Amino acid sequence: MASKQKTKVAIVGTGFVGATAAYALCIDGIASEIALIDMDKKRAEGEALDLIHGTLFTSNTKITYGNTYRLCKGADIIVITAGAHQKEGETRLDLVKKNASILQQIIAGITANNHQGIIIIVSNPLDVLTSLALQWSGFPKERVFGTGTMLDTARFRHYLSEYYEVNPSSVHAYILGEHGDSEFPAWSCAHVGGVPLKSFERYNPKELSKIAEKTRNAAYEIIAKKGATYYAIGLVITKLVRTILTDQRHVLPVSCLLENYYAINNICLSIPAVIGRQGILKKIKIPLNKKEQQQLKRSANIVKAYTQIVEKHGN
Ligand code: NAD
């Protein structure tokens, strides 16, 4: 059997999201080892066994598991999916205290065992936790970021593609800002096949704002119907991991540290960034109109306020 280059991905939290990401990664085959870490050791073991039994049909990825952060040793990427998820009626920001406290323990465990990896935050409230993980880990800013609005953008492109009856890969449009209720569509840069939406057929601001609304409410809709969201985010994580490990340099809307970005500083929010083997290679200054700049500022104020609650009062 051809031996592939050793690549290790650690996933902290083997609930719905972590287990689904591990499953998608096994099918993708990009990682030679996946380490599953959960404080609930039995759960990590159960998920690991279930995945191991499928390796005949996938890529023979080595699966390790346990409740110790020693499993992060040598990981190229550490994906954090541990923590409470939204219950029906809860916003992502409602999770802040519980999940910040969990994150603090996790970051301590990671930094005791790994200094060279890339940390990807998936748990919510995503931008607050990414900002805190960056501070608490002491890792360089290129190596700590969140999946951000990658999922929201995928949903948005799907709904736009239905409206325009084209493949989602031919719709170029971003949801930016907070991965949460203040996220916004960057309409001024959206296009289909290179044609700005305003000049494209069926331009109808009312219909487009319904699409943005549907995108913003997608997680609430799924949670009301089946309790949690995990398939699409599992694929988002896989896309990000593959982009990093193979240095693909895709431009992806991830939550990363903003520094003088439309005068916003020291907070993590989603903007388009070039992602490669070293993490964030470049942050792209996307041209936003005045309204969109205000929407980005609004996201920044919300995320800053929640981050300061944790910084001031502990968790
Ligand atoms: P879940 O409850 O199914 O799983 C969470 C897991 O975390 C559990 O197995 C639990 O044992 C583990 N855990 C808790 N504390 C831990 C600790 N200190 N160390 C290690 N493991 C610990 O939740 P889920 O549905 O998998 O969601 C996980 C997180 O992902 C939530 O915060 C959710 O809101 C978020 N999420 C984010 C996105 C996104 O787009 N970023 C999408 C879906 C869900």
Question: How would you sum up this structure, described in words?
Answer:
The protein is α/β, with parallel strands linked by helices and 315 residues long. The chain folds into 2 domains: 8-146, NAD(P)-binding Rossmann-like Domain (Rossmann fold), CATH 3.40.50.720; 150-309, Lactate dehydrogenase/glycoside hydrolase, family 4, C-terminal (L-2-Hydroxyisocaproate Dehydrogenase, Chain A, domain 2), CATH 3.90.110.10. The chain is built from 9 helices and 14 strands. The strands form 4 sheets. A 6-stranded parallel β-sheet has the order 3-2-1-4-5-6, sandwiched between helices. Helix 5 (150-164) runs antiparallel to helix 6 (205-216). The protein starts with 7 loop residues before the first strand and ends with a helix. Nicotinamide-adenine-dinucleotide is lined by residues 12-18, 38-40, 43, 81-86, 95, 99, 102, 105-106, 122-124, 126, 147, 151, 179, 228-230, 233.
What features would you highlight for this structure?
315 residues; 3-stranded antiparallel β-sheet; 41% helix; binds nicotinamide-adenine-dinucleotide; 6-stranded parallel β-sheet; L-2-Hydroxyisocaproate Dehydrogenase, Chain A, domain 2; Rossmann fold; 2 domains; alpha/beta; 14 strands; 9 helices
